[in-house]
Amino acid sequence: MALARSPRMRAAERREQLLDVTLDLVVDRGFHVLTIEAVAQAAGVTRPIVYKQFADMPGLVKALIDREEDRAISQLARAIPNIPGDRDPDDLLVEGLQRYLEAVHEAPKTWRLILLPPEGVPAVFHERTNRTRRNVLRQLEKLASWGIERRGGPKGLDSELFARLLMEMAEDSARLILTQPDRFTIERIVSFAKTLMGAVQRAPANEK
Length: 208
Known about the structure:
71% helix; mainly alpha; single chain; Tetracycline Repressor, domain 2; elongated; Arc Repressor Mutant, subunit A
């Protein structure tokens, strides 16, 4: 059966197309199925076109990991702001969670790769996602410490452990969005977070 010709594309467009196809294959079937031939067939092109963009399979995998990591970091930066001096900590936390879940909804395959890693994920991918998690956790710890002090409690709450709890809650919520989107909507999770934070003790305004 003859391979259908793929429309001519500029190099940058072709590169993105091939990375998109590779991401689809990885999320649907795992890294172990990746070959230059599999990517070429899925993209509707010949192998030389793939090799023109990527020298070999390790180069293609590295480019995919680079792109998805950059995308995730960019989205996380929008969800987790620097410490603002005049915001209500509870509002800031809930808004950050909402932005994060919206990012997951907008780029589900990127976040499936990170939060629900498929079979055969390279060790370097685990190393880089763990590094990103550590950076996020450090930022959350700063926000938690600031927020507890600004809202006046709960007294004695461990900000480091609270930051870890927030991170686990956010990641688990994202997995629910990815795996059971009809049951666990962004609106439902955000509403729960608002209710939860509203129930957390804070000092009266005149005691802050």
